[in-house]
Structure prediction request, 551 residues.
Amino acid sequence: MLKKLIIQNYAIIDEIEIDFSSQLNMITGETGAGKSILMGALSLILGERADSNVLVNKEKKCFIEGYFAVEDRKQVLAFLQEQELDAEEELILRREIAANGKSRAFINDTPATLQQLKTLASLLVDLHQQFDTLELGDTDFQREVLDALAGNNQLLDNYQSLFRQWHAVSKELTALQDQKTAFTKEADYHQFLFDELNEAGLRENELEELDHELKLLSNSEGIKVALDRVCYELKESEQPVTTVLKQLIQQLQSYTSYHADIAALIARLQSSQVELQDIAAETVHLNSGVHFDEKRIEWINNRLAEGYKLLKKHGVQTTAELLQLQTALENKLQAVLDIDDAIAAKETAQSRLYESASQLAVTISKARHQQVKPLEEKVNHLLKQVGMPNARLKVQINDTALQPFGKDQVEFLFDANKSNRFEPVRKVASGGELSRLMLCIKSLVAQSINLPTLIFDEIDTGISGEAAKQVGLIMKELAASRQIICITHQPQIAGKAHAHFFVYKEVVNNQVKTNIRLLNQDERITTIAQMLSGEKPTAAALENAKELIAD
Prediction:
Protein backbone atom coordinates (compact mmCIF):
# COMPACT_ATOMS: atom_id res chain seq x y z
CA MET A 1 0.00 0.00 0.00
CA LEU A 2 1.25 3.48 -0.94
CA LYS A 3 0.98 5.47 2.30
CA LYS A 4 2.67 8.71 1.32
CA LEU A 5 4.06 10.40 -1.79
CA ILE A 6 6.44 13.36 -1.57
CA ILE A 7 7.35 15.35 -4.70
CA GLN A 8 9.81 18.26 -4.84
CA ASN A 9 10.89 20.35 -7.83
CA TYR A 10 9.23 18.21 -10.48
CA ALA A 11 7.92 20.13 -13.52
CA ILE A 12 5.62 22.84 -12.11
CA ILE A 13 5.31 21.12 -8.74
CA ASP A 14 7.31 22.99 -6.13
CA GLU A 15 6.63 20.70 -3.20
CA ILE A 16 3.66 18.52 -2.31
CA GLU A 17 3.00 15.70 0.13
CA ILE A 18 0.06 13.30 -0.26
CA ASP A 19 -1.11 10.91 2.47
CA PHE A 20 -3.22 8.25 0.75
CA SER A 21 -6.12 6.28 2.18
CA SER A 22 -5.77 2.51 2.36
CA GLN A 23 -8.95 2.17 0.30
CA LEU A 24 -10.30 4.18 -2.65
CA ASN A 25 -8.41 7.39 -3.45
CA MET A 26 -9.85 9.66 -6.14
CA ILE A 27 -7.87 12.44 -7.80
CA THR A 28 -9.79 15.09 -9.75
CA GLY A 29 -9.03 18.51 -11.17
CA GLU A 30 -9.44 20.63 -14.26
CA THR A 31 -7.84 19.51 -17.50
CA GLY A 32 -4.24 20.74 -17.47
CA ALA A 33 -4.17 21.18 -13.71
CA GLY A 34 -1.30 18.71 -13.39
CA LYS A 35 -2.85 15.29 -12.75
CA SER A 36 -0.63 13.72 -15.43
CA ILE A 37 2.36 15.43 -13.82
CA LEU A 38 1.57 13.54 -10.62
CA MET A 39 1.58 10.26 -12.54
CA GLY A 40 4.85 11.21 -14.21
CA ALA A 41 6.47 11.86 -10.83
CA LEU A 42 5.10 8.60 -9.44
CA SER A 43 6.43 6.67 -12.44
CA LEU A 44 9.97 7.77 -11.51
CA ILE A 45 9.92 5.81 -8.25
CA LEU A 46 8.41 2.93 -10.23
CA GLY A 47 11.60 2.69 -12.26
CA GLU A 48 10.90 4.80 -15.35
CA ARG A 49 13.81 6.70 -16.92
CA ALA A 50 14.41 10.27 -15.80
CA ASP A 51 14.58 13.43 -17.93
CA SER A 52 16.35 16.57 -16.72
CA ASN A 53 13.69 18.65 -18.55
CA VAL A 54 11.37 18.03 -15.60
CA LEU A 55 13.56 20.37 -13.51
CA VAL A 56 12.14 23.88 -13.77
CA ASN A 57 14.38 25.18 -10.99
CA LYS A 58 17.85 24.14 -12.13
CA GLU A 59 19.37 25.17 -8.82
CA LYS A 60 17.70 22.35 -6.90
CA LYS A 61 17.53 18.64 -7.52
CA CYS A 62 14.26 16.82 -8.19
CA PHE A 63 13.17 14.55 -5.33
CA ILE A 64 10.38 11.95 -5.35
CA GLU A 65 9.83 9.63 -2.40
CA GLY A 66 7.17 7.00 -1.81
CA TYR A 67 6.38 5.29 1.49
CA PHE A 68 4.86 1.80 1.22
CA ALA A 69 3.43 -0.57 3.83
CA VAL A 70 4.66 -4.08 2.94
CA GLU A 71 4.03 -6.21 6.03
CA ASP A 72 1.68 -8.54 4.09
CA ARG A 73 3.67 -8.63 0.83
CA LYS A 74 5.68 -11.87 0.97
CA GLN A 75 7.04 -11.41 -2.56
CA VAL A 76 8.33 -7.95 -1.67
CA LEU A 77 10.06 -9.16 1.49
CA ALA A 78 11.55 -12.11 -0.41
CA PHE A 79 12.91 -9.75 -3.08
CA LEU A 80 14.50 -7.47 -0.47
CA GLN A 81 16.19 -10.43 1.22
CA GLU A 82 17.36 -11.82 -2.10
CA GLN A 83 18.91 -8.46 -3.02
CA GLU A 84 20.39 -8.08 0.48
CA LEU A 85 18.36 -4.94 1.15
CA ASP A 86 16.87 -3.95 4.49
CA ALA A 87 13.47 -5.61 4.89
CA GLU A 88 11.18 -3.65 7.19
CA GLU A 89 7.42 -3.18 7.53
CA GLU A 90 7.70 0.22 5.84
CA LEU A 91 9.50 0.50 2.51
CA ILE A 92 10.80 3.77 1.08
CA LEU A 93 11.54 4.21 -2.64
CA ARG A 94 13.31 7.40 -3.68
CA ARG A 95 14.55 9.00 -6.89
CA GLU A 96 16.79 12.03 -7.11
CA ILE A 97 17.51 13.86 -10.39
CA ALA A 98 20.33 16.36 -10.55
CA ALA A 99 20.33 19.43 -12.83
CA ASN A 100 22.71 17.63 -15.21
CA GLY A 101 20.14 14.88 -15.66
CA LYS A 102 21.96 12.25 -13.61
CA SER A 103 19.57 10.12 -11.63
CA ARG A 104 20.00 8.09 -8.46
CA ALA A 105 17.65 5.50 -6.99
CA PHE A 106 17.36 4.35 -3.38
CA ILE A 107 15.54 1.53 -1.62
CA ASN A 108 15.31 2.13 2.13
CA ASP A 109 18.15 4.68 1.81
CA THR A 110 20.38 2.08 0.12
CA PRO A 111 21.55 2.95 -3.42
CA ALA A 112 19.82 0.71 -5.95
CA THR A 113 19.87 0.10 -9.67
CA LEU A 114 17.00 1.21 -11.87
CA GLN A 115 16.22 -2.44 -12.63
CA GLN A 116 16.01 -3.27 -8.93
CA LEU A 117 13.65 -0.33 -8.43
CA LYS A 118 11.54 -1.36 -11.41
CA THR A 119 11.28 -5.00 -10.31
CA LEU A 120 10.37 -4.06 -6.76
CA ALA A 121 7.85 -1.42 -7.89
CA SER A 122 6.07 -4.00 -10.07
CA LEU A 123 5.32 -5.94 -6.87
CA LEU A 124 3.99 -2.83 -5.13
CA VAL A 125 2.00 -0.93 -7.75
CA ASP A 126 -0.08 -1.94 -10.74
CA LEU A 127 -0.27 1.24 -12.85
CA HIS A 128 -2.84 1.46 -15.64
CA GLN A 129 -2.38 4.38 -17.97
CA GLN A 130 -3.78 4.98 -21.40
CA PHE A 131 -1.50 3.74 -24.18
CA ASP A 132 0.46 1.51 -21.77
CA THR A 133 0.63 -2.28 -22.01
CA LEU A 134 -1.61 -3.81 -19.37
CA GLU A 135 -0.65 -6.55 -16.99
CA LEU A 136 -3.78 -8.16 -18.38
CA GLY A 137 -1.70 -9.20 -21.40
CA ASP A 138 0.62 -11.21 -19.16
CA THR A 139 -0.24 -14.89 -19.59
CA ASP A 140 0.99 -15.62 -16.06
CA PHE A 141 -1.59 -13.20 -14.67
CA GLN A 142 -4.29 -14.71 -16.89
CA ARG A 143 -3.50 -18.16 -15.53
CA GLU A 144 -3.49 -16.79 -11.96
CA VAL A 145 -7.01 -15.46 -12.51
CA LEU A 146 -8.33 -18.91 -13.42
CA ASP A 147 -6.42 -20.56 -10.57
CA ALA A 148 -7.75 -18.01 -8.08
CA LEU A 149 -11.34 -18.66 -9.18
CA ALA A 150 -10.76 -22.43 -9.20
CA GLY A 151 -9.11 -22.45 -5.75
CA ASN A 152 -6.08 -24.26 -7.14
CA ASN A 153 -3.53 -22.95 -4.63
CA GLN A 154 -2.96 -26.17 -2.68
CA LEU A 155 -3.07 -28.32 -5.81
CA LEU A 156 -0.49 -26.03 -7.42
CA ASP A 157 1.80 -26.27 -4.39
CA ASN A 158 1.63 -30.08 -4.54
CA TYR A 159 2.11 -30.07 -8.31
CA GLN A 160 5.09 -27.70 -8.20
CA SER A 161 6.79 -29.90 -5.60
CA LEU A 162 6.41 -32.89 -7.94
CA PHE A 163 7.41 -30.82 -10.95
CA ARG A 164 10.63 -29.64 -9.26
CA GLN A 165 11.49 -33.23 -8.30
CA TRP A 166 10.74 -34.45 -11.82
CA HIS A 167 12.80 -31.64 -13.33
CA ALA A 168 15.73 -32.38 -11.00
CA VAL A 169 15.63 -36.13 -11.74
CA SER A 170 15.37 -35.38 -15.48
CA LYS A 171 18.51 -33.25 -15.29
CA GLU A 172 20.31 -36.00 -13.38
CA LEU A 173 19.17 -38.55 -15.98
CA THR A 174 20.41 -36.36 -18.83
CA ALA A 175 23.75 -35.97 -17.07
CA LEU A 176 24.03 -39.75 -16.67
CA GLN A 177 23.12 -40.30 -20.31
CA ASP A 178 25.71 -37.74 -21.40
CA GLN A 179 28.22 -39.43 -19.13
CA LYS A 180 27.39 -42.80 -20.65
CA THR A 181 27.83 -41.38 -24.14
CA ALA A 182 31.25 -40.08 -23.15
CA PHE A 183 32.09 -43.41 -21.51
CA THR A 184 30.94 -45.34 -24.56
CA LYS A 185 33.06 -43.23 -26.88
CA GLU A 186 36.15 -44.02 -24.81
CA ALA A 187 35.19 -47.53 -23.71
CA ASP A 188 36.90 -49.36 -26.60
CA TYR A 189 40.14 -47.47 -26.08
CA HIS A 190 40.00 -47.99 -22.32
CA GLN A 191 39.34 -51.70 -22.89
CA PHE A 192 42.37 -51.93 -25.19
CA LEU A 193 44.62 -50.23 -22.64
CA PHE A 194 43.30 -52.40 -19.81
CA ASP A 195 43.72 -55.63 -21.81
CA GLU A 196 47.28 -54.64 -22.67
CA LEU A 197 48.16 -54.07 -19.01
CA ASN A 198 46.20 -57.09 -17.85
CA GLU A 199 47.96 -59.35 -20.36
CA ALA A 200 51.32 -58.01 -19.20
CA GLY A 201 50.43 -59.38 -15.76
CA LEU A 202 52.84 -57.22 -13.86
CA ARG A 203 53.23 -57.85 -10.14
CA GLU A 204 54.11 -55.23 -7.53
CA ASN A 205 57.66 -53.82 -7.95
CA GLU A 206 58.39 -56.40 -10.66
CA LEU A 207 60.27 -54.15 -13.07
CA GLU A 208 62.43 -52.69 -10.31
CA GLU A 209 63.29 -56.17 -9.01
CA LEU A 210 64.05 -57.51 -12.51
CA ASP A 211 66.30 -54.56 -13.21
CA HIS A 212 68.26 -55.38 -10.05
CA GLU A 213 68.45 -59.08 -10.97
CA LEU A 214 69.67 -58.26 -14.48
CA LYS A 215 72.52 -56.18 -13.08
CA LEU A 216 73.46 -59.08 -10.79
CA LEU A 217 73.43 -61.66 -13.61
CA SER A 218 75.30 -59.38 -15.97
CA ASN A 219 78.14 -59.04 -13.39
CA SER A 220 78.01 -62.63 -12.08
CA GLU A 221 81.47 -63.68 -13.43
CA GLY A 222 83.24 -60.70 -11.84
CA ILE A 223 81.39 -61.26 -8.58
CA LYS A 224 82.41 -64.96 -8.48
CA VAL A 225 86.07 -64.08 -9.14
CA ALA A 226 86.04 -61.51 -6.33
CA LEU A 227 84.37 -63.89 -3.91
CA ASP A 228 86.79 -66.71 -4.79
CA ARG A 229 89.75 -64.39 -4.12
CA VAL A 230 88.37 -63.36 -0.74
CA CYS A 231 87.73 -66.96 0.23
CA TYR A 232 91.24 -68.01 -0.96
CA GLU A 233 93.02 -65.25 0.99
CA LEU A 234 91.09 -65.97 4.14
CA LYS A 235 91.37 -69.77 4.16
CA GLU A 236 93.35 -71.37 1.31
CA SER A 237 96.50 -69.32 0.52
CA GLU A 238 100.02 -70.33 1.64
CA GLN A 239 99.49 -68.03 4.61
CA PRO A 240 95.70 -67.77 5.20
CA VAL A 241 94.71 -64.68 7.18
CA THR A 242 92.80 -66.74 9.73
CA THR A 243 95.86 -69.02 10.27
CA VAL A 244 98.19 -66.04 10.68
CA LEU A 245 95.83 -64.55 13.30
CA LYS A 246 95.86 -67.89 15.16
CA GLN A 247 99.63 -67.92 15.26
CA LEU A 248 99.79 -64.31 16.49
CA ILE A 249 97.38 -65.13 19.27
CA GLN A 250 99.51 -68.08 20.39
CA GLN A 251 102.67 -65.95 20.50
CA LEU A 252 101.00 -63.32 22.71
CA GLN A 253 99.42 -65.76 25.13
CA SER A 254 102.86 -66.67 26.69
CA TYR A 255 103.23 -63.04 27.82
CA THR A 256 99.83 -62.35 29.37
CA SER A 257 101.21 -62.71 32.89
CA TYR A 258 103.76 -60.00 32.24
CA HIS A 259 101.54 -57.30 30.74
CA ALA A 260 98.02 -56.59 31.85
CA ASP A 261 96.78 -55.23 28.47
CA ILE A 262 97.90 -58.22 26.38
CA ALA A 263 94.87 -60.27 27.45
CA ALA A 264 92.52 -57.63 26.05
CA LEU A 265 94.50 -57.50 22.82
CA ILE A 266 94.31 -61.29 22.49
CA ALA A 267 90.53 -61.13 22.98
CA ARG A 268 90.18 -58.66 20.15
CA LEU A 269 92.37 -60.80 17.87
CA GLN A 270 90.27 -63.86 18.71
CA SER A 271 87.10 -61.90 17.90
CA SER A 272 88.57 -60.82 14.56
CA GLN A 273 89.56 -64.42 13.80
CA VAL A 274 85.98 -65.62 14.47
CA GLU A 275 84.53 -62.79 12.30
CA LEU A 276 86.91 -63.57 9.43
CA GLN A 277 86.07 -67.27 9.63
CA ASP A 278 82.35 -66.34 9.44
CA ILE A 279 83.02 -64.01 6.49
CA ALA A 280 84.87 -66.82 4.72
CA ALA A 281 81.89 -69.14 5.23
CA GLU A 282 79.43 -66.46 4.01
CA THR A 283 81.63 -65.86 0.98
CA VAL A 284 81.42 -69.52 0.07
CA HIS A 285 77.63 -69.40 0.51
CA LEU A 286 77.26 -66.28 -1.66
CA ASN A 287 79.52 -67.72 -4.30
CA SER A 288 77.44 -70.86 -4.53
CA GLY A 289 74.37 -68.74 -5.27
CA VAL A 290 75.86 -66.71 -8.09
CA HIS A 291 75.42 -68.28 -11.52
CA PHE A 292 75.59 -66.88 -15.01
CA ASP A 293 72.30 -67.81 -16.78
CA GLU A 294 72.17 -66.65 -20.37
CA LYS A 295 68.54 -67.75 -20.88
CA ARG A 296 67.43 -65.97 -17.72
CA ILE A 297 69.19 -62.80 -18.85
CA GLU A 298 67.44 -63.00 -22.21
CA TRP A 299 64.01 -63.50 -20.56
CA ILE A 300 64.58 -60.58 -18.19
CA ASN A 301 65.65 -58.31 -21.05
CA ASN A 302 62.47 -59.16 -22.97
CA ARG A 303 60.31 -58.68 -19.89
CA LEU A 304 61.92 -55.32 -19.08
CA ALA A 305 61.57 -54.20 -22.70
CA GLU A 306 57.85 -54.94 -22.51
CA GLY A 307 57.57 -53.14 -19.17
CA TYR A 308 59.60 -50.08 -20.26
CA LYS A 309 57.43 -49.79 -23.35
CA LEU A 310 54.33 -49.57 -21.13
CA LEU A 311 56.02 -47.04 -18.83
CA LYS A 312 56.87 -44.81 -21.77
CA LYS A 313 53.44 -45.20 -23.38
CA HIS A 314 51.61 -44.09 -20.25
CA GLY A 315 54.16 -41.49 -19.16
CA VAL A 316 54.88 -43.04 -15.76
CA GLN A 317 58.05 -44.14 -13.93
CA THR A 318 57.24 -47.18 -11.78
CA THR A 319 55.47 -50.52 -11.79
CA ALA A 320 53.20 -49.22 -9.02
CA GLU A 321 51.97 -46.39 -11.28
CA LEU A 322 51.20 -48.86 -14.07
CA LEU A 323 49.21 -51.01 -11.66
CA GLN A 324 47.30 -47.92 -10.41
CA LEU A 325 46.49 -47.05 -14.02
CA GLN A 326 45.27 -50.59 -14.63
CA THR A 327 42.96 -50.35 -11.60
CA ALA A 328 41.64 -46.95 -12.78
CA LEU A 329 40.89 -48.35 -16.24
CA GLU A 330 39.12 -51.31 -14.67
CA ASN A 331 36.99 -48.91 -12.59
CA LYS A 332 36.06 -46.90 -15.69
CA LEU A 333 35.05 -50.04 -17.53
CA GLN A 334 33.00 -51.12 -14.53
CA ALA A 335 31.41 -47.66 -14.41
CA VAL A 336 30.08 -48.22 -17.94
CA LEU A 337 28.27 -51.27 -16.63
CA ASP A 338 27.16 -49.54 -13.40
CA ILE A 339 25.86 -46.45 -15.19
CA ASP A 340 23.29 -48.55 -17.04
CA ASP A 341 21.84 -49.58 -13.69
CA ALA A 342 21.88 -45.94 -12.52
CA ILE A 343 20.17 -44.80 -15.73
CA ALA A 344 17.50 -47.45 -15.36
CA ALA A 345 16.83 -46.37 -11.77
CA LYS A 346 16.61 -42.68 -12.79
CA GLU A 347 14.30 -43.52 -15.69
CA THR A 348 12.00 -45.34 -13.29
CA ALA A 349 12.00 -42.40 -10.86
CA GLN A 350 11.47 -39.92 -13.69
CA SER A 351 8.57 -41.90 -15.10
CA ARG A 352 6.93 -42.21 -11.68
CA LEU A 353 7.25 -38.47 -10.94
CA TYR A 354 6.09 -37.53 -14.43
CA GLU A 355 3.03 -39.71 -14.09
CA SER A 356 2.16 -38.23 -10.69
CA ALA A 357 2.73 -34.66 -11.92
CA SER A 358 0.72 -35.31 -15.09
CA GLN A 359 -2.25 -36.65 -13.13
CA LEU A 360 -2.20 -33.61 -10.86
CA ALA A 361 -1.81 -31.29 -13.87
CA VAL A 362 -4.93 -32.87 -15.41
CA THR A 363 -6.87 -32.22 -12.17
CA ILE A 364 -5.69 -28.59 -12.14
CA SER A 365 -6.54 -28.22 -15.82
CA LYS A 366 -10.07 -29.54 -15.30
CA ALA A 367 -10.62 -27.03 -12.50
CA ARG A 368 -9.43 -24.24 -14.80
CA HIS A 369 -11.68 -25.33 -17.66
CA GLN A 370 -14.64 -25.35 -15.28
CA GLN A 371 -14.04 -21.66 -14.54
CA VAL A 372 -13.80 -20.55 -18.18
CA LYS A 373 -17.50 -20.16 -18.92
CA PRO A 374 -18.42 -18.56 -15.55
CA LEU A 375 -15.50 -16.11 -15.91
CA GLU A 376 -16.49 -15.17 -19.46
CA GLU A 377 -20.11 -14.66 -18.43
CA LYS A 378 -19.28 -12.58 -15.35
CA VAL A 379 -16.70 -10.40 -17.11
CA ASN A 380 -18.91 -9.84 -20.16
CA HIS A 381 -21.79 -8.90 -17.87
CA LEU A 382 -19.57 -6.42 -16.01
CA LEU A 383 -18.30 -5.00 -19.31
CA LYS A 384 -21.89 -4.10 -20.22
CA GLN A 385 -22.31 -2.42 -16.86
CA VAL A 386 -19.21 -0.27 -17.33
CA GLY A 387 -20.25 0.98 -20.76
CA MET A 388 -18.79 -1.69 -23.05
CA PRO A 389 -21.94 -3.51 -24.28
CA ASN A 390 -20.28 -4.80 -27.44
CA ALA A 391 -17.05 -6.00 -25.84
CA ARG A 392 -16.50 -9.65 -25.06
CA LEU A 393 -13.81 -11.67 -23.36
CA LYS A 394 -12.99 -15.19 -24.42
CA VAL A 395 -10.66 -17.52 -22.51
CA GLN A 396 -8.59 -19.96 -24.52
CA ILE A 397 -6.73 -22.87 -22.92
CA ASN A 398 -4.25 -24.91 -24.97
CA ASP A 399 -2.43 -28.05 -23.89
CA THR A 400 1.34 -27.78 -23.47
CA ALA A 401 4.15 -29.92 -22.16
CA LEU A 402 4.46 -29.95 -18.39
CA GLN A 403 5.66 -26.61 -17.09
CA PRO A 404 5.96 -25.07 -13.60
CA PHE A 405 2.22 -24.28 -13.45
CA GLY A 406 0.75 -27.32 -15.12
CA LYS A 407 -0.05 -28.30 -18.69
CA ASP A 408 -2.07 -25.30 -19.83
CA GLN A 409 -1.29 -22.20 -21.87
CA VAL A 410 -3.94 -19.66 -20.90
CA GLU A 411 -4.72 -16.80 -23.26
CA PHE A 412 -7.36 -14.09 -22.81
CA LEU A 413 -8.86 -13.07 -26.16
CA PHE A 414 -10.78 -9.84 -26.64
CA ASP A 415 -13.30 -8.52 -29.13
CA ALA A 416 -14.30 -4.89 -28.56
CA ASN A 417 -17.01 -4.62 -31.25
CA LYS A 418 -18.84 -7.94 -31.68
CA SER A 419 -16.73 -8.62 -34.76
CA ASN A 420 -16.12 -12.23 -33.76
CA ARG A 421 -12.45 -11.52 -34.35
CA PHE A 422 -10.97 -12.32 -31.00
CA GLU A 423 -7.35 -11.34 -30.56
CA PRO A 424 -4.95 -11.83 -27.62
CA VAL A 425 -5.34 -8.98 -25.16
CA ARG A 426 -1.57 -8.44 -25.27
CA LYS A 427 -1.88 -7.49 -28.95
CA VAL A 428 -4.71 -5.01 -28.43
CA ALA A 429 -3.75 -1.37 -27.88
CA SER A 430 -4.56 -0.45 -24.29
CA GLY A 431 -6.67 2.48 -23.20
CA GLY A 432 -9.66 3.31 -21.06
CA GLU A 433 -11.65 0.32 -22.32
CA LEU A 434 -8.92 -2.17 -21.51
CA SER A 435 -8.39 -0.55 -18.12
CA ARG A 436 -12.06 -1.19 -17.43
CA LEU A 437 -11.63 -4.77 -18.60
CA MET A 438 -8.79 -5.17 -16.12
CA LEU A 439 -10.93 -3.61 -13.39
CA CYS A 440 -13.74 -6.07 -14.09
CA ILE A 441 -11.40 -9.06 -13.97
CA LYS A 442 -9.54 -7.95 -10.86
CA SER A 443 -12.77 -7.25 -9.04
CA LEU A 444 -13.62 -10.96 -9.46
CA VAL A 445 -10.36 -12.24 -8.02
CA ALA A 446 -9.47 -9.54 -5.48
CA GLN A 447 -10.19 -11.83 -2.53
CA SER A 448 -8.08 -14.66 -3.93
CA ILE A 449 -5.00 -12.84 -5.30
CA ASN A 450 -2.88 -10.54 -3.19
CA LEU A 451 -3.04 -7.66 -5.66
CA PRO A 452 -0.71 -4.68 -5.33
CA THR A 453 -1.92 -1.07 -5.19
CA LEU A 454 -4.02 -0.44 -8.31
CA ILE A 455 -3.64 2.92 -10.02
CA PHE A 456 -6.05 3.85 -12.82
CA ASP A 457 -5.30 6.93 -14.88
CA GLU A 458 -8.47 8.16 -16.61
CA ILE A 459 -10.20 4.80 -16.68
CA ASP A 460 -13.40 6.71 -17.47
CA THR A 461 -12.43 7.66 -21.03
CA GLY A 462 -15.50 7.39 -23.25
CA ILE A 463 -18.08 6.71 -20.55
CA SER A 464 -20.49 8.69 -18.40
CA GLY A 465 -23.78 8.32 -16.58
CA GLU A 466 -24.73 4.83 -15.46
CA ALA A 467 -21.57 3.21 -16.87
CA ALA A 468 -19.39 5.58 -14.88
CA LYS A 469 -21.48 4.91 -11.78
CA GLN A 470 -20.94 1.16 -12.21
CA VAL A 471 -17.18 1.67 -12.59
CA GLY A 472 -17.24 3.62 -9.34
CA LEU A 473 -19.22 0.91 -7.56
CA ILE A 474 -16.86 -1.81 -8.75
CA MET A 475 -13.90 0.24 -7.61
CA LYS A 476 -15.46 0.88 -4.21
CA GLU A 477 -16.15 -2.81 -3.71
CA LEU A 478 -12.64 -3.73 -4.85
CA ALA A 479 -11.13 -1.08 -2.55
CA ALA A 480 -12.62 -2.80 0.47
CA SER A 481 -9.65 -5.20 0.33
CA ARG A 482 -7.14 -3.37 -1.90
CA GLN A 483 -5.85 0.17 -2.17
CA ILE A 484 -6.92 1.95 -5.36
CA ILE A 485 -5.78 5.32 -6.68
CA CYS A 486 -7.83 6.67 -9.56
CA ILE A 487 -7.60 9.82 -11.67
CA THR A 488 -11.06 10.62 -13.03
CA HIS A 489 -13.17 13.29 -14.70
CA GLN A 490 -16.45 11.56 -13.88
CA PRO A 491 -18.45 12.72 -10.84
CA GLN A 492 -20.17 9.33 -10.62
CA ILE A 493 -16.74 7.73 -10.03
CA ALA A 494 -15.34 10.50 -7.83
CA GLY A 495 -18.38 10.23 -5.57
CA LYS A 496 -17.34 6.73 -4.43
CA ALA A 497 -14.02 7.87 -2.92
CA HIS A 498 -12.90 7.22 0.61
CA ALA A 499 -10.35 10.01 0.11
CA HIS A 500 -10.88 12.70 -2.55
CA PHE A 501 -7.83 14.74 -3.65
CA PHE A 502 -8.14 17.87 -5.78
CA VAL A 503 -5.34 18.97 -8.11
CA TYR A 504 -5.21 22.66 -8.92
CA LYS A 505 -2.94 25.39 -10.24
CA GLU A 506 -1.99 28.48 -8.30
CA VAL A 507 0.28 31.45 -8.88
CA VAL A 508 3.18 31.69 -6.45
CA ASN A 509 5.71 34.52 -6.88
CA ASN A 510 4.43 35.14 -10.41
CA GLN A 511 4.96 31.47 -11.28
CA VAL A 512 2.25 28.87 -12.00
CA LYS A 513 2.51 25.90 -9.66
CA THR A 514 0.58 22.64 -9.35
CA ASN A 515 -0.69 21.70 -5.91
CA ILE A 516 -3.02 19.12 -4.39
CA ARG A 517 -5.18 18.98 -1.29
CA LEU A 518 -7.46 16.50 0.44
CA LEU A 519 -11.08 17.66 0.31
CA ASN A 520 -13.40 17.64 3.30
CA GLN A 521 -17.03 16.59 2.96
CA ASP A 522 -18.38 20.04 1.96
CA GLU A 523 -15.54 20.59 -0.50
CA ARG A 524 -16.24 17.21 -2.04
CA ILE A 525 -19.89 18.06 -2.57
CA THR A 526 -18.99 21.38 -4.21
CA THR A 527 -16.28 19.81 -6.40
CA ILE A 528 -18.51 16.98 -7.61
CA ALA A 529 -21.34 19.46 -8.23
CA GLN A 530 -18.93 21.52 -10.37
CA MET A 531 -18.01 18.38 -12.29
CA LEU A 532 -21.74 17.92 -12.94
CA SER A 533 -22.80 21.44 -13.95
CA GLY A 534 -19.84 23.79 -14.20
CA GLU A 535 -17.98 26.45 -12.21
CA LYS A 536 -21.13 27.70 -10.48
CA PRO A 537 -23.10 24.57 -9.55
CA THR A 538 -26.87 24.73 -9.36
CA ALA A 539 -28.86 23.64 -6.34
CA ALA A 540 -29.89 20.54 -8.24
CA ALA A 541 -26.24 19.73 -8.97
CA LEU A 542 -25.39 20.11 -5.30
CA GLU A 543 -28.23 17.76 -4.33
CA ASN A 544 -27.11 15.32 -7.01
CA ALA A 545 -23.53 15.51 -5.69
CA LYS A 546 -24.76 14.68 -2.17
CA GLU A 547 -26.61 11.66 -3.55
CA LEU A 548 -23.51 10.45 -5.42
CA ILE A 549 -21.42 10.67 -2.27
CA ALA A 550 -24.10 9.01 -0.15
CA ASP A 551 -24.58 6.02 -2.51
The mean pLDDT is 86.
